[in-house]
C-alpha cells in the first residue's frame, strides 16, 4: 500500500448558509437574508476526535490529489491563471506586496474536505495558486469542523493548521491573501474590523463573496440588525475594487455548488458571487476617519424603518 509521503507536493512549503425572515406585514412573503451569528473572541482549538487513522488519511489524500489534478486540467484554472497574470491584476498584487517578496495565504471556513468535494476543490485552487505563483507564501488554514484526519492531510499538503480559532480576526501585519469563499458574512466583517485602517487594509487581498452584493442586499431589504452586523463590509465598498469576479461564476458551475432546490435564485446569486477584492490605496486615507460614517449607516437605516412604521400607522389610522 502506498504511503502518504508519496503524495506530498515537491514544491510546497509545509461556516454555513444563512437565512433570516424579515418581519412580515400582512401576508408579505418570506425572503432569505444573511443569518447573523455572534462570533466570540479567539480561543484555543483542537480536533474533537483524537485518534489517527492512516487508512482514512491515505484515502483523503488520494481524493485531494484527484481534485487537484481535475482542477489543474480545467478551463477554469487556466483562465484564472491567465487573469491573474494580466498587468492590471498583477499591478494590484504588487502594490499589496510593496517591498515584501511573498504574500502569506490564510484560508478560513472552507468546510470539511473529508465529507464534501466542494471544500476539496476550493483547497485545491488555493494550493494550485501557491504552486503557480512564487510570490504566494505559506498557507495557514482553519475551520472548526476539521477532524484529526483532515489536519494530518492538510499538513502533508504543505499547509499549517491553526491551533487557535481566530474568528476571522487576523490582523494583516504583513501582506496577506485571505482565501474565504462562501464564508459567513460576519467573518468578513470580523476581518475588516480587525484591520480597520489604511495601514492594514493596504496589505490585504481577499478571495470571497463580493461585498457589493451585500451592499445591494442590505439596501433592498433595509434590515437594521443585518446592517449593524455587516457595517464594515458595507462601508468598505467605497474603498475597494472588485477586480475579478466573472470566472468565479464558471467555478460555481465546475464544482456544482449552487442548488436551486433549497434556495431562491436571489439568495443563490448573493451567496455565490465571488471575486478578488483589493483595497485601493488612494481611497484608504478616509478609512481611519470613517467610524462616524459606520454608525450613520445604521442610524439612517434605523430611522428610515422608524419613519416607515409611522407612515404605516398613519395610513391604517392606528
From TrEMBL:
The SRR1-like domain, residue ranges: 92-257
Source organism, top-level taxon: Eukaryota
Pfam families noted in UniProt: SRR1 (PF07985)
This protein's GO CC annotations: cytoplasm; nucleus
Transmembrane segments: none
Membership in a protein family: Belongs to the SRR1 family.
Protein name: SRR1-like domain-containing protein
